[in-house]
Fold this sequence. Notes:
By secondary structure, the chain is an alpha/beta fold. 40% of the residues lie in helices and 13% in strands. Strand 6 and strand 7 (311-312) form a beta hairpin. Helix 15 (367-384) packs across helix 16 (391-398). The relative contact order is 0.08.
Amino acid sequence: MYLQYFGLNEAPFSITPDPAFVYLSPEHREALAHLVYGVGQGGSGGFVQLTGEVGTGKTTLCRCLLEQLPEDTRVALVLNPLLTPRELLATICEELGIETGAIADSNKAMVDALNRYLLAQHAGGHRTVVVIDEAQNLSPDALEQVRLLTNLETPKEKLLQMVLLGQPELRQLLQRQDLRQLAQRITARYHLAPLNAAETAAYVRHRLKVAGAQRHLFTRPALRALYRRSGGVPRLINIIADRALAGAYGRESARVNARLVHGAADEVQPAERRVRPSPWRGIAATAAALLLLVTSLFLWRDGYFDPAAGEPSETVAVPAGPTPVPAAATDSDAPANGDVPPAAANDAATSAPVVEDVEPEYVRPDADWLRTQHRAAWDVLAGLWQEPGAGGAIQSACDGMPGTGFACLREAGSWSRIRQLGLPVILVLRSDAARLVVLRGFAGDALLVGAEPDGARVAQRDIESLWFGEFLVAWPQAPDWPVELRRGAAGPAVDIVMRLASFAAPPWQGAGVFDGEFESWLVAFQRRNGLVPDGIVGPNTLLHLLAPTIDEPRLVIENGEDS
């Protein structure tokens, strides 16, 4: 959902291996060289072993290896080694195209068939390779069966090359006394370690560049935080980075900072202990803690403490001035000043009464309040359109029912997208209590929302914690309005679209017919507004043509101006 916001062509941090996004660190290149050497001319049959922790890129390297093998190489890829020796043997035969239906009950018959196949491939100048992923799951008996396959040979060379990919447990498994014969046949082995800090930064930038990014989307502190929280494991880097980009998109941040990375890591690794702040920040954190304590006392005194939550509520009010926060949690990427003199804590504590200047109209979106807003949402939106009693019609339109006298679109976007439309919308929240809240406008760091006559003020951060970007926008529309208009259409609907286009920027100044020239103008209009550039006037394009011409209702801005 953040691709268009950051100017990306595709998701940069998918956990599915994609050759287009492969980043080979110096260690990955060395590991790949070992694999190529072991399978190629440098090896005389036997085993090639690659181990590494979960998510370090073993499967990705395997794909790179397979792409570099000569075209005359025959490959059997075993992805699920939780098999008996006989099942493993049958799987290898089937991967190579050897029919096993009549011989599946006999190991000897399958080995004989495999031997005939290998001799035929060798005579034709072809090489045969068996790749077993997650090889640490092989039983000792299955490993012994695999070893015996490497005995298939001509007087001069082996007929079968084995590649074992696995977690570090594979190395421990091969140290067993009863598997020493197999261990002695490993001609190339490599253990893949996670990326270091510099490689992590290069990995992130590489994937973003491949995805189409035109600028750096992660700050340097964010990259350091990403390395610390992922340990340099590529799969974890992808998961955390993807969630951090989604978080930046939801907060309309141009870049991902360290706090967003830590927040993303806390979400995807709930069992992980949070990273401790550096010791040099201790004094600043202590000063902030004193301030928090004094502030809590004032909140308790004024009745803002929520006994059910067990801690002071963070959503009751917004101070008139900036509120200091612990150094480890600031948005800034600059290091906090750890040399805070003791007097700073006293000054901070004595300044705590600034909490008395909070704006009392800020409300807390608790479960009861949300339920009230949910029940009233459709009627509130109808009232804003000066159509009292039409809440049911709007709801039906948003449920997909035609001919209600209203049109409705379900959108996904950011606060900027809503501001661009300039119309009140219904936010679809992720809340167990209720889901729908009418957004009427913006008031600094607050949102004007809800069923009250002028809308209640709620801290934007409190709604953001419940909102993932989904909203509904509705507007009055003739019941017989066509679903779409395209080149060659004519009639009253086209006349209205032409008039709306004349108010766009830049305006349409051509003839009042839907011809190829207007279609070209429409495609350019759609591209400017982030719409599908298909040259068709569907509901989404119609809304973007219509919205700037609507005088009432408008999305309210704090100073009273329209958006």
